[in-house]
Amino acid sequence: MKPLILHGHHTGPNPYKVQLVLENLDLPYDYKLWVLGDGEKGVKSAEFLKINENGRVPALEDPNTGVVSWESQAVINYLLRVYDKSHTLSPGAEASEQERVDYDIWTAFLTTTFGPMMGQRNWYVNYNATDNPDARKRYEEQCLRCFDVLEGQLVKSDGRSILPSGFSAVDCHFWPWLRQHGFAQLDVSKYTLFQKWFKGIVERPEVKKIDEFIAREKEAQGIKSM
């Protein structure tokens, strides 16, 4: 089997969720790094726009099938359809319709709500050129509201996984965004089940491998850790 090519960069969390799925499915892959902007090796360069016309990462090239995918949810869905035949990360044939719907619900909650709120909070805390206390406060409130929702869901598994059935691609979607809670200056100390979930996630060997990869690459580039 030829290695898949995962396109990512050093800053955004979305490529790392795809990387975590690849690791859990034990698929060979190469990680190709890009930078922001339209310069050489930039995600807005003509070279990258041939892969993803939206100029964003992640993107995935599969030389085994000839398929190119982008948008993290679409990429992960592709990987699960093609390579997760035993349904280790997704609902199998024995799953109930409610379990299938719950899988979709929590994936969508991350990609349409929780992730974007974390992204806005990170921007106004760490990158915005001018101080904007109203925006920081708004996105702090929205992020903590999302943590409230997640904490309620984690009751169903006693903090072991987001879906009661066990670790799945849903956890892969959430981990890279929620590992940034400190970078976003969010106080999540009251969320005891989230703390339990997060501790369990970071102890997984696949996550440790990616954490080491992130730290190594950012140190090499002198990029602030998240």
Report on the structure:
It is built from eight helices and four strands. The longest helix has 31 residues, at 97-127. It is an alpha+beta fold and 226 residues long. The radius of gyration is 18 Å and the shape is globular. It has a four-stranded mixed sheet, with helices on one face. The model has no long low-confidence stretch (mean pLDDT 95).
> Mean pLDDT, rounded to whole units?
95
Total strand segments: 4
Quickly count the helices: 8
What is the global morphology? globular
Q: Radius of gyration from the CA trace?
A: 18 Å
Low-confidence runs of at least 5 consecutive residues: none
Q: Outline the biggest β-sheet.
A: 4 strands, mixed
Brief digest:
With 226 residues, the chain is of the alpha+beta class.
Topology (elements, then pairings):
Blueprint: E1 4-8, H1 14-24, E2 29-33, H2 46-49, E3 59-62, E4 67-70, H3 72-83, H4 97-127, H5 133-154, H6 169-178, H7 192-202, H8 205-221
Parallel strand pairs: 1-2
Antiparallel strand pairs: 1-3, 3-4
Helix pairs in contact: 1-3, 1-6, 4-5, 4-6, 5-7
Features:
8% strand; globular; 226 residues; four-stranded mixed sheet; 4 strands; 8 helices
